[in-house]
Structures are given as C-alpha cells and as structure tokens.
Amino acid sequence: MIHDTLQIKNKTLTTRLVFPPMATHSSAKGHISADLINHYTAIAKNPLVGTIITEHAYVDPTGKVDDKQVSLASDDVLLAQRHLVSSIHAVRPELIVIAQMNHSGAWTNEDPVGYELLSSSDVTCRGRKARALTKEEIKYLVGQYAAAARRVQAAGYDGVEIHCAHAYLLNQFYSPLLNTRTDEYGPQSLENRTRFLLEVVAAVRDAVGPDYLVAVRLGGCDYQPGGSTIEDAAQTAVLLEKAGVDLIDLSGGTCRYIRQDHQEPGYFSDMSAAVKAVVSVPVLVTGGIQTPADAEALLQAGKADLVGVGRALYKNPRWGFNQ
C-alpha cells in the first residue's frame, strides 16, 4: 500500500509515505538557507516519499520559536521560498510539497526579542510567563495566518498546513491543560476550544481559494489526565472536515511528538484510527515508524491513509530505498 497513489483535491500523491515537518533550526534569520535546500532536496530524491511537509514557519514575529526558525511573516521571504519549492520540484516534479505555518505562543526556546510571550491564558511555560491574548489580538493573528497562507500559495507550494499540535499556540487553546479562559475561547466546551483554530481555517480557506490543499496538524490528544482526549480528536476532525480541511495530520498535544511509555510503531495510531472512522478526508499518522514494514502494517491495518516517517528519514534520506 505504500506505493498506492492518493488523490487530494486536484493533487495526486504518488505514494502513501510522507516526510512530516521536522524543525532543523537552520534558517538564516528567517530566510531559507542553502543547507535547508540541500536537506529537502536530498529527501526528495527518495522515491518512497510522495509528500514533503516543510518545517514550521512563523506567521508573526511574536510567535518565533528562535532566530533560526523559518519565516512566513513578510513578503521579503517569498523569493527564497520560491527557490526552495522549485529546487524540490526540480528533483521530482510530481512530489507534493506542503508548507507548515505556526505561531509558537508560549512554547519558545527563547523570549522573542521586543515582544511579550502570548498564549491562550496567563500561563508559565518552559519557565517563562505568558499572558492571555485579547480578542483583538486573536483577530489580528487570524489575519496573519491568512497572509502567510497567501505567501505559501504565491511561493508555489502545493498546499499549506496549519499547526495545532505540540503545545504551540493553537494547541494551547485546544488543550484544557493550558486554557483557563472565561470567554468564548475558553475550555468550557470543545466548540470554544476549537474556535480560534476554526477561525484560522476559515480565513486561510478564504485566502487561498476553494481548490487549494489545506491541511491541519492536530495534536488531538494530550495523553495526560485532564487533557484533550481521543474523543476530542475525533469530534474536532469532523469539525475540520466540515470547515473545508482536506487532510488531517495527527500528532501529540501537550505531550508533543512523543507518548510516554510508548515506542511501538505508530504510537498515535489509536487516535488516527478513531479519527479515520468518522471523516472521509485522508488521515496521516506519525510516531515511532522505523522501517517500511512498519509503515505498510499501519496502512494495511487501516490505521491511517498516509504514514509519516520523520526521524528515520532525517537521519538517512535514503531510508527504505537501496539501504
């Protein structure tokens, strides 16, 4: 099944294997570096890979993880972004390339110089205090996501992915562990917790049009007491499909990309199976997949439509092919 094609909108994925977004922290003050181009073109040469989702890029300077994160926050990055996409497509024109965009909120490696740390609520994260976004600031950031999505489309990417996982900003609203608001964005209901995310989805869809591929990386379950649950993930996936999302990419919430005491291939596959059962759009699962046989087994078992292999491909771009 790895070699099966998959149609998403007007795009044909040539295989079911995805290189998911993995931060390299190798940009040059937000711009695409030569090292970054070499990194992605090396992976593009692997014929098992049908899709590359590039590492998270910040939509606003207040949401930078660090100074080596890629930027989508201004038009001056467009030339270098186009060069990255064209370089990947020069290796394999049929490869689907999706850009992930993000706001880190309180989850940063360092305080963004000149900016307050922002979050869903007044929280302390990684030893630093953040304050709750106002409704006006939420509206502003929705616009920043939309503007970044337009840049992604203008740069020639095949699609855009909205990051709502790994304890970053949108996930800070989604997780009851980090959301203590008392307004309509608060934790009182799943509708409230997903409101910001769905506003971003609507703005992005409006910005890129009806035919462009829009994905969401959903940290659907915190796998912690009092956190978001697999049931939440399934219900949110239904909302995302209704909102026009074309691909749901599942990972961890506040547990980030690991699951405590779990190292089996596809350790988020209990979540992906639950989500796949309630939506018709493709579902992508990542986590702990070490061999092509692992990926094939997950696909054969119906746990997901697509399988992401991150660390193994990061270490060896020729993973699974002529090793």
TrEMBL record:
UniProt-listed InterPro entries: Aldolase_TIM, NADH_flavin_oxidoreductase, OxRdtase_FMN_N
CDD domains, A to Z: OYE_like_FMN_family
Domain NADH:flavin oxidoreductase/NADH oxidase N-terminal: 6-320
Keywords, in A-Z order: Flavoprotein, Oxidoreductase
Stored Gene3D superfamilies: Aldolase class I
PANTHER family: BINDING OXIDOREDUCTASE, PUTATIVE (AFU_ORTHOLOGUE AFUA_2G08260)-RELATED
Official protein name in the record: NADH:flavin oxidoreductase
Organism: Megasphaera hominis
